[in-house]
């Protein structure tokens, strides 16, 4: 049981480049989300999805796109990378968004934009 | 956006000591969760609380859901070196249709 798998684990981008961070879960979870973690800022929600075909913005969505074509996958796209997007990105999934539903996290993608 | 106030930001304690950290919110929450993050890893759920006043233990960890629904604390008893990491509280508002909100974390260091 792999849980939540994120790839790549590390990435360096040049300013203006685009890339996609991959997230896959094998638990048949409906609810998936992307967070970024910066020093002293905790975890901030970027985008989330309550099911295939449905996405919504979180607290810090600018500069990021998401899509949810399948239950298993929830990729995060950086359209034109900026140094301010240097961060550690975490994908999480849970069975649904009902109160008290546990969120399982991936191991993170450490992104540096130079 | 909605944020939780988590304190302290960091703690340095001697091995064997007890630890206490807490989170407060301006909103009423119907769920409180406590996560631990080891270096280079994603957060892992430690304890989940679903009812006001609920007190739940997981080994040396004890957490409580405040009566006002606006706060929660986590205690760690008899700390050991592997307790080192960042502890996050997370909550979900009463409406139940909002995503989890996370505190900024408490960085715990244990001195042997």
What would your notes on this structure say?
The complex is a heterodimer of chains A (114) and B (112). By secondary structure, chain A is mostly beta strands. Chain A has strands at residues 4-7, 10-13, 19-25, 31-38, 42-51, 54-57, 64-66, 76-78, 87-94, 104-105, 109-113. In chain A, strand 4 and strand 5 (42-51) form a beta hairpin. Chain A is globular and about 35 Å long. The model of chain A has no long low-confidence stretch (mean pLDDT 92). Chain B has strands spanning 5-7, 10-14, 19-24, 29-37, 44-49, 55-58, 61-65, 71-76, 85-93, 101-102, 106-111. In chain B, the strands form two sheets. In chain B, strands 2, 4, 5, 9, 10 and 11 form a six-stranded mixed β-sheet that branches. Chain B is globular and about 45 Å long. The model of chain B has no long low-confidence stretch (mean pLDDT 91). The interface between A and B is medium-sized, with 25 and 28 residues.
Give a brief description.
The complex is a heterodimer of chains A (114) and B (112). Helices cover 0% and strands 51% of the residues of chain A.
């Amino acid at each position: 049981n792999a849980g939540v798998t994120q790839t790549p684990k590390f990435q360096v981008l040049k300013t203006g480049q685009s890339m996609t961070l991959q997230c896959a879960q094998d638990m048949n979870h409906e609810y998936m989300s992307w967070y970024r973690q910066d020093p002293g800022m905790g975890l901030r929600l970027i985008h989330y999805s309550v099911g295939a075909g449905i996405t919504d913005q979180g607290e810090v969505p600018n500069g990021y796109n998401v899509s949810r074509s399948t239950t298993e996958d929830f990729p995060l796209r950086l359209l034109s990378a900026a140094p301010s997007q240097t961060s550690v990105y975490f994908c999480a999934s849970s069975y649904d968004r009902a109160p008290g539903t546990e969120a399982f996290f991936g191991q993170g993608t450490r992104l540096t934009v130079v | 956006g909605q944020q939780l106030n988590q304190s302290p930001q960091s703690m340095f304690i001697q091995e064997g000591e007890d630890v206490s950290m807490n989170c407060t919110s301006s909103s009423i929450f119907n769920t409180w969760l406590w996560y631990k993050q080891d270096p280079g890893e994603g957060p892992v759920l430690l304890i989940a609380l679903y009812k006001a006043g609920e007190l739940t233990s997981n080994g040396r960890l004890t957490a409580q859901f405040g009566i006002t629904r606006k706060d929660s604390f986590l205690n760690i008893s008899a700390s050991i070196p592997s307790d080192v990491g960042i502890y996050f509280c997370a909550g979900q508002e009463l409406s139940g249709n909002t995503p989890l909100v996370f505190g900024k974390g408490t960085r715990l260091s244990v001195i042997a």
